[in-house]
Amino acid sequence: MHELPPTLAAVAQVGVPVIEVSHVSTRFGTAVVHRDVSLTVVRGEVFAIAGGNGCGKSTLLREIIGLLAPTTGTIRLLGTDSRQLTQSNGSPLQRRFGVMFQHGALFSSMTLAENVAVPLREHTPLSAEAIRDIVALKIALVGLPPDSAIKFPSELSGGMRRRAALARAIVMDPELLFLDEPTAGLDPMIAAGFDDLVLELKRLLGLTIVMVTHDLDSLWRIADRVAVLGEGQVLGLGTMDALARSDDPVIRSYFHGPRGRAAHLNHSGMGLQRD
Ligand SMILES: Nc1ncnc2c1ncn2[C@@H]1O[C@H](COP(=O)(O)OP(=O)(O)OP(=O)(O)O)[C@@H](O)[C@H]1O
């Protein structure tokens, strides 16, 4: 029997759980960040983790990708306990996901092409020529011009830096893509363009996407499901439409404050109407 190419194999498994967070609690000293958090991400969705400042979104992301071990509870990533990632470097599992950290986290002393090449240099035996070709392809895929490859991060705009960071996150053809505050600090037009790019890459590459964000426009635009964290717990989990109807006071204040209302109006098209 022939094996399916990775993208088709991923499409064939749409809806299968790829991340299972079970009864996770996290403490830093006496500070409790998570108490009994459980959620499941299924293949093929854009799953967002939202909530107020300091509610533990990035910490949960770090736990899922094995940079940090939860105090209690378990997290299974693509069927493997993510503690195994915490304990070992260079696990084959690490090749199956890409991460775009907050603000892009590009190396300032490297050109854009060198930044994008880092995972290939670290995790594959590919020749310099093959790496150059793959990097050029990924730079084009995120909509950056070829001449940006030789530029340093300081020579790029904020939006271009995010696209470069995204190119690095997908350079190993991952199944799963993690985005930590991908649109933070971008102006609304650039942020919307970035959201569209994320959706396009999801479609082209058969990605499952987990995104930590405060950006209500992004949530309305691209999230299939959203987990709202607060008070150490999952306060609500569902589609944006379902969450917008929630009676939970924290969720209500999150979605029905001035920014939440404006984002909802924009999403429904009403925000674009003029008198
Ligand atoms: N390594 C650490 N040691 C001690 N405390 C930490 C550590 N990492 C995170 N925290 C604390 O855990 C809490 C949750 O932080 P986290 O960055 O996960 O929140 P967040 O929801 O992503 O916040 P923001 O939206 O502001 O980025 C914060 O109070 C933070 O100070």
TrEMBL record:
Domain ABC transporter: residue ranges: 19-256
- The protein's name in its UniProt record: Putative ABC-type transport system, ATP binding component
- Tell me the keywords, alphabetical order: ATP-binding, Hydrolase, Nucleotide-binding, Transport
Check the record and name the InterPro entries matching this protein. Answer: AAA+_ATPase (IPR003593), ABC_transporter-like_ATP-bd (IPR003439), ABC_transporter-like_CS (IPR017871), P-loop_NTPase (IPR027417)
Q: What is its EC number?
A: 3.6.3.-
Annotated GO MF terms: ATP binding; ATP hydrolysis activity
Organism ancestry:
Bacteria, Pseudomonadati, Nitrospirota, Nitrospiria, Nitrospirales
Q: Does the keyword Secreted apply?
A: no
Class of enzymatic activity (EC top level): hydrolase
Q: Which organism is it from?
A: Nitrospira defluvii
